[in-house]
Write a structure and sequence with these properties.
Layout: E1 6-7, H1 9-19, H2 31-37, E2 41-42, H3 46-54, H4 62-71, E3 75-79, E4 85-89, H5 93-98, H6 100-118, H7 125-140, H8 148-154, E5 161-164, E6 171-174, H9 176-185, E7 189-194, E8 203-207, H10 208-212, H11 221-236, H12 241-248, H13 252-261, E9 265-269, E10 274-277, E11 291-294, H14 316-319, E12 329-332, E13 335-342, E14 348-352, H15 358-375, H16 387-392
Parallel strand pairs: 1-9
Antiparallel strand pairs: 2-4, 3-4, 5-6, 7-8, 9-10, 11-12, 12-13, 13-14
Length: about 400
Amino acid sequence: MAALRLISDDERRARIAVRHGLHPRHRYPDALSAATAMTALHATEPPTVHLSLQARVRGVSVVDIEDALYTERSLVKQLAMRRTLFAFPRDLLPAALASASARVAGTEFRRLAGDVERSGVSSDGSAWVEDAVAAIVDHLGDLSELDAAAVRAAVPSAVAKIQQGSGRWTQEAHVTPRLLTLAGARGAIVRGRNGGNWRISKPQWTSMSAWLGESLTSITPESGYAEIVRRWLWTFGPGTEADLVWWLGSTKAAVRAALAQVEAEAVGLESGETGWVLPGDDAPIAVGPWAALLPVLDPTTMGWRQREFYLDPSDVPYLFDSNGNGGTTAWWCGRIVGCWVQDADARVRVVPRHELAADASEALGEAAEQLTAWLDGVVVNSVYASQQMRGERMP
């Protein structure tokens, strides 16, 4: 049996530079191109979408990104992998809805039905949830765009309260947000225009078909997983089976079936593990030095479970929170070397984890100046601030 072609860590880091649009000579021309190159953009916090695109798109503005999200609607926010909100290229939505979103929706439905019964709202939680979701979808079907409070005021079943959590963490809460989450995961409704500025989340919910002006094509879960895995391999490959299982929030069986369907090819990695790439996608890539500043939960930072080829394991507790959420990151030649913060005057400042060489320090300083100018006095906050970010915040 022939030895597998080895893709070195240097090559993997070069692929990040080129395919992720982080090297200055490999920026993308518009928001849709960059999002497509990344498979999808993390959107748990609204600023992540904007800052991820700022790092990858030549001359992009906040207005350009808002247009892609809310006017052109070429990017659509959808709950999917690992119960995480992403901004998907519109053409990838059918695959996401059939696979990762459907898996999330199933889990959400079972949990919500159980909470409805335990809270005494109904003895048949499944039927009650289905009726309540149907009422919300029907109400939004007239092209309405409503926030959660307006939905609760308009739909009688949405005013119910349920008990969430257990023990001393039990609390009573309105059921509306969870009904909206479930209907959104199913693809019946969607987060439309944002009711606040680009840094905060105040989604206006509306019908998915009304928002897009069309009904999405229905495909099988197997085809959905295969299409997402195909795109992931182009963006993040080579990656391991463990990387894909984690990133998809799926099972080994689903990942293995998708890898077979796209005819993925095995390659060797420096770690000694087997990686996977698309057929024929193992040609070497090389680039010169580059620097980048990426936001909290950026898709590059969160693209793999096994991160040793771009992140020193000893730095993880300082740059990720206890749940594995990545904070802001400073990159030099394909490795995370620190984070960035904003001072009281909104100026971006790089905070290295270790001493940097002069060329790295200079390049990251230039990146900080460019990001400061782009933000133009706006301060971006995050609930996912890492330990190093919190330690460096100005009073």
